[in-house]
Amino acid sequence: MAAGDQTATDPVLCVRRDAVQWITINRPERRNAINEAVAAGIGDGIRLAMADRDCRAIVLTGAGDKAFCAGGDLNPSADGAPFTVDPANPRNYVVDLLQLIETCSVPLVARVNGHALAGGFGLVCACDLVVAADSATFGTPESKIGLFPMMIMPHLMRIVPPRRLQEMCITGESMPAAEALSHGIVNYVVPAAELDTKLAWLLDLIVGRSPTAIRLGKQGFQAMRDMALREALEYAQLMLPMMARTEDCREGFAAFREKRVPRFTGR
What beta strand segments (E) does 140-218 contain? Predict the structure, then answer.
């Protein structure tokens, strides 16, 4: 998917801005709800970023100023159920997208410009970093329509404190941005008018760091999070010498000795 192949009506817009890949869910009339086309578009944008060594960060956001993503696009099937399942291929596109995000080698930053609900909240929790407008809310309203946030639960459980998560899932009530910040669910909360300024500040920090260190560090973070302590320590002591042999590490040490800004290549 190239930028020239896109139109303003596409469900997902991918735009490269210098070293940052912007992925925008472009369905403001549906509160940027996720359907199969949206999941595919986000996935395409992530793959483009990972395939390009010059891409240093990804921003995921929603069009407009009302919603980041309001969750799944619930269109009932003929029998009235909100999801259709093929018994011969029961995989869900949301799970496929979340698994892709889990393996993404490029820092993924959520720009939360409005409500992040249900699957949208799952996307927020799957991202590496989050900058949110103070008007944003976060929630899992599925219990209000007879569902429970099953597919996004693995990511929610890693980010949201257990008691608060249980309350959100059971009651379906949302959490304001200020509380999300207090729980560490987001990194920064700013007035909506300052959202892009704060985001640009964070992106500048990311772009100036070693892509190799970040790529291997993200891999180690994801791996060690699922390991017992003994396994994690063994993994760490093998990874560090490998990182020390990269071109970026040698350049970083040379720049430190020579008191200059490093020129990282991602190798």
Answer: 175-176, 188-190
Residues 139 and 245 in one domain: no
**Lookup result for tokens 């608060």:** 164
The pLDDT tens digits for 170-187 are 999 999 999 999 999 999
Residue spans of the chain under pLDDT 70: 1-4, 75-85
Structural domains counted in the chain: 2
Vertex 5 angle, CA 14 and 105, to 5° = 35
- Confidence at residue 87, expressed as pLDDT on a 0 to 100 scale: 73
pLDDT at 1: 54
Judgement on whether residues 193 and 254 belong to the same structural domain of the protein: no
Alpha carbon distance 11, 25 (integer Å): 6
DSSP assignment, residue 37?
Answer: H
Quick one: which H or E segment has residue 200?
Answer: helix 195-207
**Looking at residue 226, what DSSP letter applies?**
T
Please say whether the beta carbons of 211 and 186 come within 8 A: no
> Which residues are bridge partners to 139 per DSSP?
117
Q: Do residues 198 and 233 share a domain? A: no
* Exposure letters 158-184 (e unless 16+ CB within 10 A, then b): ebbeeeebeebbeebebbebeebbeee
Residue 77 covered by a domain: yes
One domain for residues 87 and 70? yes
Q: Which residues contact 85 (CB under 8 A, 6 or more apart)?
A: none
Residues 6 or more apart whose Cβ sits within 8 Å of residue 18: 207
Q: What is the CATH number of the domain that holds 131?
A: 3.90.226.10
Residue 266 located in a structural domain = no
144 with 248, same domain: the answer is no
